[in-house]
## 1
Amino acid sequence: MPFTVAIVGRPNVGKSTLFNRLVGRKLAIVHDLPGITRDRREGRASLMGVDFLVVDTAGFEELGGDSIEARMRFQTDRAVEEADVALLLIDARAGVTPLDRHFADHLRKAKTPVILVANKCEGKAGAPGLYEAYGLGMGEPVPVSAEHGEGMYELFEALMPHAQKAGVVLDEEDEDEFPPFPDEAADAVAEDEAEPDPGRPLTMVIVGRPNVGKSTLGNQLLGEERLLTGPEAGLTRDAIGVEWTHAGRAVKLVDTAGLRRKANIYDAVEKLSVANTLESIRRAEVVVLVMDAAQILDKQDLTILRLIADEGRALVVAVNKWDVVENPQVALGRLRDRLETSAPQVKGVRTVTISALNGRGISQLMDAVVDSWAVWNRRIPTAQLNRWLAEVIERHPPPALPGGRRYKIRYITQVKARPPTFALFATKPDELPESYVRYLVNGLREAFDLKGVPIRLFVRGGRNPYADKGA
């Protein structure tokens, strides 16, 4: 994206709401409690035919040292520094506050140009604050309502000079009305059926319990302090997506909030963070489950692993802090035993030992991610499947039906990938034992090297729909 816009301002002025409005989806968590956003979040936005990268930031706060707020401020300052233009958002209903004035003075010293935006200007309640904003000395404020989508054309006009300076050329024939704010249903577009596009970024989501090193791993992969890290558990709240390139391949890395046991979640913001993480898993292609080497595959790790498998995502297990493990061989053996007995649905899952802090195992981790993605997208010709099926049935036929009649399995075909999904056509599909279905799934996994990804096998009855088409 040649043109980047950073949204900045004090806490709770509507930055994340405006971000969601511009990207056309509810990506950022929005809540009345100040300070929800901690990391900077990027999204592809479009406004009146102009495409750009928009960055949501943490609220400006004046605190120093090694506090969380100071680390958040560092990320916000980096976002402003890297942007082509910054939008300084104020709450018109609250009026101009001393903190607004302080950070207007701060931004005035920066090299990045600033557009003053007065949010919450719907109705008449925001009028006094809008007029007061002229006193900040940052030019004419742009009145908007991020929640209701008002003032978007005025914002577009304010952005255009900076967009043209950055090299954006507006095609007037492509100008569209700004899309309405989507409802929840608009976010539920399934992408599983789409064929893999070599030019589209591989979506890699990092998940795990709190404080296992997810954000540290993300920074190590990106090669910069892009994600907020620290000893405090629960630093990450939003699922933060960053696009980068690994070995010439586009990757979208998504860092997520830690997942604790449901019974331990009381805070409303944490509930929103967990929902955000679960949605990221649903949209992922490959999920990297990070666990602490000191607590390998505890109950919560297994819960997360099963959730990933249920969603049908490709999986890689990353065991972090491996550099401090006293007996690596014993720990690795224990991990493999736990996976074998407790996670049969992803049998053969790729496991990588890493140290996110010093970069150990990072190259092997990305190799495992790419390999898992390839398996997750694999398609097997129907002729190969049916030759395999004939051999399997001959070696181990299904059990007989009541009365001694033979159970007939007629045909198998792959109906989709992402994850590999198969349809088995047979007589009396409801009477095929679950144990035999598991036997077939394990056989598919071994015969076609589908290790480490969920496999779906549906038993169907009736006439073989492929009989007239050949294998």
## 2
Amino acid sequence: MTHELKAIVFDVFGTVVDWRGSIAADLGAWGARHGLVRDWAALADDWRARYQPQMERVRSGAIGWTVLDALHRQALDELLPLHGLQQLGEEERRYINRVWHRLNPWSDVREGLWRLKQRHVIGTLSNGNVALLVNMAKQAGLPWDVVFSAESFQAYKPLPETYLGAARMLDLAPDELMLCAAHNDDLAAARAQGLRTAFVARPTEYGPHQRKDLAPAQAWDVVAADFIELADRLGA
């Protein structure tokens, strides 16, 4: 028996917000105010490259539960000397680390989310911690009904606890919940737990030379060009 779709949760980094472009623009403006000229997009790329390896330390049990803000800060402290920024003090490092709280959405996101919200419960299902996701939503005007984070379950995607935990907390069967993501591996993990799936490509997430997640890798339940088409496809 297939249930009616009741709720949609969204991967955030890359799917909802343009992390690379946002970081480059934000830190570029900050650097200009402080007389610092750097390749901020390269810093963003190097930072993001440490994302999965750091979370894997938590997933594997090598270290205890650690929120993403703290993992980001550990990676940042390692990266700054590589970008000639080892002289930065605590206040400056904290400002830079919190750039992840200030990311901007892709151009189709707000309209698409507001339409989807009229018919479905909408929320995040992100590896970002709760404070990060709430601050981002306030700044970016993202109209979530609920914020689910890896922190909610103390488990980073793609561990099953994240997908099943969101369904459980909404009192839904897994197939009453859909994950929307720009990443095929995230969708595969959600589908394995019984969730419905929607793929929205973000072909410039990793910059002009992106090579992965340019197209759906499986026959996902919905494939859409953007959140507006996703709303169209779901009758919102």
